[in-house]
């Protein structure tokens, strides 16, 4: 991609491309990220995918065009976008270093310390419990 092509992309598009190259799911999991999912559906140009929602909320916080308290009134929204942003960062770092094992999702609340899942791009062998 040329510098000119890169400059024309908005933050959501840049993030979406990185996520797609790594094989990371860009959908917003309604079960784990309910507030963020509802926000994405209520967008005038929605529904938004994960990278679009992360970039949009980041821009609303950093460059507000309306009172920010509207954003914070949506119960759990800022917390969920924070979790999704951490999830993307962790997975992008693991992809960059070539990791193909299991990891602990940043989107899972509760559970056990050993609850892991394979990285989306790897052929990780997940140990199964023996009877």
Structure, described:
With 131 residues, the protein is mostly helical. It has one domain. Helix content is 50%, strand content 3%. The chain is built from 6 helices and 2 strands, in the order ααααααββ. It has a two-stranded antiparallel ribbon with strand order 1-2. Helix 2 packs antiparallel against helix 4, helix 3 crosses helix 6 and helix 4 crosses helix 6. The N and C termini lie far apart (52 Å). The C terminus is likely disordered.
Please give a quick description of this structure.
The chain has one domain. 50% of the residues lie in helices and 3% in strands.
Keywords, please?
131 residues; disordered C terminus; 3% strand; 50% helix; 2 strands; 6 helices; mainly alpha
> Can you tell me the residue ranges where pLDDT is under 50 for at least 5 consecutive residues?
124-131
Which band does the percent of strand residues land in? under 5%
Strand order of the largest sheet: 1-2
Distance between the termini: 52 Å
Give the averaged pLDDT, no decimals.
Answer: 86
Q: What's the structural domain tally?
A: 1
Overall helicity: 40-55%
**What does the largest sheet look like?**
2 strands, antiparallel
| SSE arrangement, N to C | HHHHHHEE
């Amino acid at each position: 991609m040329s510098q000119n092509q890169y400059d024309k992309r908005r933050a959501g598009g840049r993030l979406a491309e990185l996520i797609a190259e790594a094989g990371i799911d860009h959908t917003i999991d309604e079960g784990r990220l309910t507030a963020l999912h509802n926000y994405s559906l209520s967008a005038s140009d929605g529904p938004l995918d994960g990278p679009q929602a992360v970039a949009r909320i980041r821009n609303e916080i950093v460059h507000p065009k309306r009172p920010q308290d509207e954003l914070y009134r949506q119960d759990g929204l800022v917390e969920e976008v924070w979790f999704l942003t951490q999830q993307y960062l962790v997975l992008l770092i693991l992809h960059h270093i070539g990791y193909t094992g299991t990891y602990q999702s940043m989107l899972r609340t509760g559970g056990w310390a050993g609850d892991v899942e394979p990285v989306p791009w790897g052929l990780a062998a997940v140990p199964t419990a023996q009877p």
